[in-house]
Amino acid sequence: MFFTTRNQKIFCISFQRTGTTSTGAFFNDFGYKVATYPISRKNDWTGKWFKGDYETIFKSRDFKKYQVFEDNPWWCLDFYKVLFHRFPNAKFILLERDADEWFDSMVSHSKGKTLGNTHRHSILYNREEDFYNQEIDRKLYSKEIDNLLDLNEENREHYKAIYRNRNREVNVFFSEFGQDRLFTGELKDSNVWHEMSVFFGMKIPENYRSHKNASTQ
């Protein structure tokens, strides 16, 4: 069962390294139009989010074209609240995983460096002071993937707290204002894709597993 109008959107607001790519693969497997990271990067949607230029995102041709949105900027900070009110028919997905496993995945992704653009990363993970204290060329509104700060064991508890608290905040928000609009699940749960299919009114094979290995996320 698919959505009947182009206006109904699905936003994956899971933290990076928490099944965003697998979620996109899941919907793509069943015929949904999925806006993946390359689509977002082509449109510089994260840059526009960072500048507060939300309407340019929403008016873009690709945003209107696609139904499912994974990766950034949809998970960034409390952007989900903007999406919640701007698109009252939209549904949301929040997958979670063990906080230590998540942090290990973050560290391994960029080999002990911060992921993606350093200034954006510092905003997302409350490391602005680290960013400004570095003797680096501070291109504040660049979309360059520069990986400038260290990400190591010293940062573990800081990142874990941000990860856990943000997930709590999402769950509390939707429990108060629209629980029926949020699907939650555990990334490592073997039944998560079947539970997701039920939530979205889809029929999938009993032996289905998203073809993107969750361990890589």
Describe this structure in words.
By secondary structure, the chain is of the alpha/beta class. It has helices at residues 20-29, 37-43, 45-50, 54-59, 61-65, 79-86, 99-109, 118-124, 128-133, 156-177, 192-199, and strands at residues 10-12, 34-35, 68-69, 91-96, 182-186. The protein has eleven helices and five strands. Strands 2-3-1-4-5 form a five-stranded parallel β-sheet, sandwiched between helices. The two termini are 28 Å apart. The model is unreliable at 1-6 and 213-217 (pLDDT under 50).
- C-alpha Rg (nearest Å): 17 Å
Strand portion: 5-15%
Please bin the fraction of helical residues: 40-55%
Shape: globular
What is the N-to-C order of secondary-structure elements (H for helix, E for strand)? Answer: EHEHHHHEHEHHHHEH
Distance between the termini: 28 Å
pLDDT below 50 for ≥5 consecutive residues: which ranges? 1-6, 213-217
Q: What is the residue-mean pLDDT, rounded to a whole number?
A: 91
Total count of helical runs of at least 4 residues: 11
The profile of the biggest β sheet is: 5 strands, parallel
What's the arrangement of strands in the largest beta sheet? 2-3-1-4-5
DSSP strand count:
5
Q: How does the helix and strand content classify structurally?
A: alpha/beta
Layout of helices and strands, plus pairs?
Blueprint: E1 10-12, H1 20-29, E2 34-35, H2 37-43, H3 45-50, H4 54-59, H5 61-65, E3 68-69, H6 79-86, E4 91-96, H7 99-109, H8 118-124, H9 128-133, H10 156-177, E5 182-186, H11 192-199
Parallel strand pairs: 1-3, 1-4, 2-3, 4-5
